[in-house]
Amino acid sequence: MIRILPPEIVAQIAAGEVVGRPASVIKELVENSIDAGAREIRIEVTDGGRTLMRVADDGCGIPAAEVELAFQRHATSKLASADDLARIATLGFRGEALASIAAVSRVTCATRAAGEETGTLIRLEGGQVVSRRPIGRPPGTTVTVEDIFYNVPARRKFLRSSATERRHIDAWVTRYAMAYPGLRFALVHDGREVFRSPGSGRVRDVLVAVYGVEVGSALLEIPPEEGAPVRVEGFVSPPHLHRADRGEITLFVNGRWVQDARLTYAIIQAYHTLIPTGRYPLAVVMVSLPPEDVDVNVHPAKAEVRFRDGDGVFRAVQRAVRQAVTGEAGVPTMRTVLGPAPAAQVPEVRFPPGPAGERYRPTPMPLIAPPVSPGGLPPLRVVGQVAATYIIAEGPDGLYLIDQHAAHERVLYEQLMAQREKGIPVQMLLEPAAVDLPPEWAGLVEAHQETLRRLGLEVEPFGGNTFLVRALPAVLAATHPREVLMEVAQGLAEESGSAEGPGGGGAEEQGSGGAEEQGSGGAEEQGSGGAEEQGSGGAGERRGRGAEEIERAIIRRVCKRGAIKAGQVLSREEMEELLRALEECESPRTCPHGRPTMIHISTAQLAREFQR
Ligand code: ADP
Ligand code: MG
Question: Which of 234, 302, 323, 540 is most open to solvent, judged by the fewest CB atoms within 10 Å of its CB?
């Protein structure tokens, strides 16, 4: 029998889209406070939000005559016409949050509009007003949400542990604190203040509050670019600071936190070869563009957006991040003396300096200090070679120790990447070499024959799991074809293994060109559970990684094989040639796998060591 659902049930179903979990309540209430022009926002939570969530602000307040209205569905002060929808400048616009939250909890709202004498206290249960009276209070609004899902047992069951809900709440509060550094946020869990942002207007201050002094002050600021249509601001980690997942890549578009697989990928890609594979940068990137160039109305929880020019935004983000990173990617510096850091330096990141005055603490490994010299390499003069592995060179500011293998890998990598456009020089083999591969790799090699050919490796299937290698990239002419093919096959296996996310197989088709689609697909899958994925950028890599990533991986493998080995004695000419080539590189300081190619000991450090 078909029935029209009663209004309370309709409201609860609709609420599901907005209120996925306690953290989504916090998010919506904080957005309202920001939209209300608050300077200070205080968030109190008990029991991970199960029993109580309270957001208090000093914003414009709600006029007494409109308080009930604010809790009705599709009631908003932020949109007047359909035209407005095309250029939304507020965080809210659908007029659904308060109604949805009220439908699934007990809500108390105390508010006073800035221009009015008295305030209003209103209480709703399951969306119905149960009491209302005038109160005295300063201008602003305090919304208290108790017993979330008390009337929707099915959802209450799905609440995760308090710790998990807390984590989600923390994520939202810190995100908004970063995006609105001029506002003072305070977050209190179970009576204890766990986070406070100073409201100084400086994002860096908030980052210090979120990540601590060491990480916060080591982050690199994206250099401002005047007059660009898409403004990209924010902070990204220096290459020596990285994380195991994408969870700390935070993106805002016009002040709104968004999940955007492609932009996340743009950020990750900007670190390509600068950090080890499988590691991810930490980033807080704010994109601003005219509101009419971005559609924020594509996702129920407003967590995704669509750009009019997705490719342009992608490029702008990638360029900005790359500039921040390569502009500053300094040579790791050997610090054998643990004293106060020299004035111009960013505080030590991975190894905090010891107590001031403590000198000469022998250290088992070189300490990696943050960037000292921006930009390319200084001219280097070869002094000699140690252990048939490291080149010693002198630069304008001291001594450089260069890992010959890592450096050569970097040189080959950049050369091959550049040659890829025109065609990589190949060495035809006089006699094709037959190579047997393990069955699980044979299929991969066969499937990627075309890619391999473009990279200078000509192979053809020869029955069973055997392949004929006809040509090699010229840089590998001296390497046995079998070794090359095994290496490449292994690269393919790793890369295609990791390229297939849980959704499987999306990588190839999507490549990096799917500008049109971006945002729309994800919105579908996410539905009301959007909050689940939040922060991890889960769907991210599946879309961005593809043929390009596979090619790069193969090139990295080829470079590893083709590069001078450790233990190989080099002539002065060979060393000089290597250093010249390294100076030409765009990112000379790390190998394609992200390890350092060199260590720098400054003249000042030498002087200190010798107590001069
Ligand atoms: P939306 O934010 O999409 O407009 P909401 O349901 O979140 O919808 O809020 C409805 C309306 O209530 C808002 O448009 C605003 O006028 C008012 N409102 C909500 N919260 C606040 C607040 N903290 N301060 C002032 N006004 C508020
Ligand atoms: Mg709102």
Answer: 323
Nearest Cα neighbor of 97 from 9, 177, 7, 24 is 24
The residue type found at 533 is E
How many whole angstroms from its chain centre is CA 447?
Answer: 32
Whether residue 104 contacts residue 147, with contact meaning beta carbons closer than 8 Å, is answered with no
Q: Let me know: does 32 contact 45? Beta carbons within 8 Å.
A: no
Pocket test for ligand 1, best of 33, 34, 35, 143 (most atoms within 8 A of CB): 35
CA of 23 to the centre of ligand 2 (A): 14
Contact 331, 54 (CB under 8 A): no
The pair of structure tokens assigned to 586 is: 């765009």
The single residue listed with the structure tokens 């939570």 is 45
Backbone φ, ψ for residue 555 (5° rounding): -60, -40
Q: Is the dihedral of CA 170, 176, 182, 184 positive or negative?
A: negative
Asked if 285 and 232 touch (Cβ cutoff 8 Å), the reply is yes
* Pocket lining: 70 vs ligand 1, CB cutoff 6 Å: yes
Q: Are 266 and 319 in contact (CB under 8 A)?
A: no
Give the pLDDT of residue 140.
97
pLDDT band of 101, cuts 50, 70, 90: very high
Tokens of 248: 């700390």
Ligand 1 atom with least separation from CA of 31: 2
- pTM beyond 0.90: the answer is no
Is residue 61 in contact with ligand 1, taking CB distance under 6 Å?
Answer: yes
User: Strands of 231-236's sheet, edge to edge?
Assistant: 220-221, 231-236, 283-288, 249-253, 256-258
- pLDDT at residue 497 in the model: 63
Contacts of 118 (CB under 8 A, 6+ apart): 64, 112, 134, 135, 136
**Cα gap 231→227, rounded to integer Å:** 8
Verify whether ligand 1 is closer than 6 Å to residue 462 (CB atom). Answer: no
What pLDDT band is residue 146 in, cutting at 50, 70 and 90? very high
Residue nearest atom 21 in ligand 1 by C-alpha distance: 32
